[in-house]
Amino acid sequence: MYPKNLISITDFSKDDYLKIMKLAAEFEKEPNQDLLKGKVVASLFFEPSTRTRLSFETAVTRLGGKIIGFTDSSSSSVTKGETLHDTIRMVSNYADMIVMRHPLEGSARYASQISGVPVINAGDGANQHPTQTLLDMYSITKTQGSLDNINIFLVGDLKYGRTVHSLLQALSVFENPIFNFVAPPELAMPTEYKRFLDRKGIRYFEHTEFNDIISEADIIYMTRVQKERFNDPIEYEKVKNIYILKNSMLENTKPTMKILHPLPRVNEIHSDVDSNPKAYYFTQALNGMYTREAIISHIMGLK
Amino acid sequence: MDKALQVSAIKDGTVIDHIPAERLFDVITILELDSCKEMITFGTNLDSKRMGKKAIIKVANRFFQGQEINKIALIAPHAKLNTIKNYHVVEKRVVEIPEEIINIVKCFNPKCITNHETITTRFNVVSKKPIELRCMYCEKITAEKQIVIK
Fold this sequence. Notes:
Strand order of the largest sheet of chain A: 7-6-5-8-9
Radius of gyration of chain A: 19 Å
Helix content of chain B: 10-25%
Mean pLDDT of chain B: 90
Low-confidence stretches of chain B: none
Oligomer: heterodimer
Order of helices and strands of chain B: HEHEEHEEEEEEEE
Structural class of chain A: alpha/beta
Radius of gyration of chain B: 16 Å
Order of helices and strands of chain A: HEHEHEHEHEHEHEEHEH
């Protein structure tokens, strides 16, 4: 039984996650496979994106499929006032699958109810970005050997960062994860996620300092602390330089530890980290293409 | 003063009592009583020992099903239903918050798609006390104080 859509990371079961990991590894060995030959994939980006759109479109191309769509809403009928409902009804008549990014939250779930063909959510506002989570999981699997027993440090904006919330939910189904939350009080992990971990009996620790505590980490997952998230600009000025990862901080970390970041990065990882073998964020972005080939194949029931 | 004298009695039908006074018109809207052809009497700002001010609605010849009446549980969680037959109370019921709330409440999230297109809202009730509703679309939680009727 194949899931019909991927809207939220929790739509997939642990078996789905593991299958995606296995397929992504296969696509990494052989990226060009003609599984989508004769199929059309609609790539509907109602707001701009670089990595996600290009890696999806590359994934479709490497699978032998054709792409239709638009790269931002100004080149679609949305500018004429067309509703999302009507756009999806029409496009689902043309294409065999829809990949969609939209600024409104819940838009992808709504599209999946209207569409007669599978929908993959490529980001719906601040809500969900499940393909990012799956590529994060593939990066962890590749570098740590499995998704079990991972001690992960989530750093930066843990309040609004959708990637950290989805990753937390996904890793919670694996054996013995340990979460360390490193954030200023204004951007701390929301209570609902801490309650979720409490209910599952999963260990987590909260820190406001970002220093040698990272020596135990298997993964450091960095996110950006954005100025516009703070009501008080003075509070931002106080913390803006605390959550920056520098090469000197990595001395006592585990040799197998890797640094992930969903990108784009601004200044939260100093450029002197880039040449450290523990820096993994650019390879992580490449993993996104294999992971998206895997997701498309899984949802279309091709593998 | 006896409340029966404030709002006249009905022979057959339903009395909905212990409605918060400020929610009377929301209850009327949710139960679609504005388009009901039967005789309806209501009173509001009645003294109540427990609630301070309360409202009461009496609908002649209408008998509500559980699911239908549970729609008001979000805004009138202490409401009590008395089924009246031949001027006598033959059944007393309390409302229960359902597991799913369909097309009654607005999502509090201004960036939720349901606030931008014509969509039937759907929420899962994740907590009943205090009430917390998770939007099926944007997945955000609407808390009890944020509940606005569509």
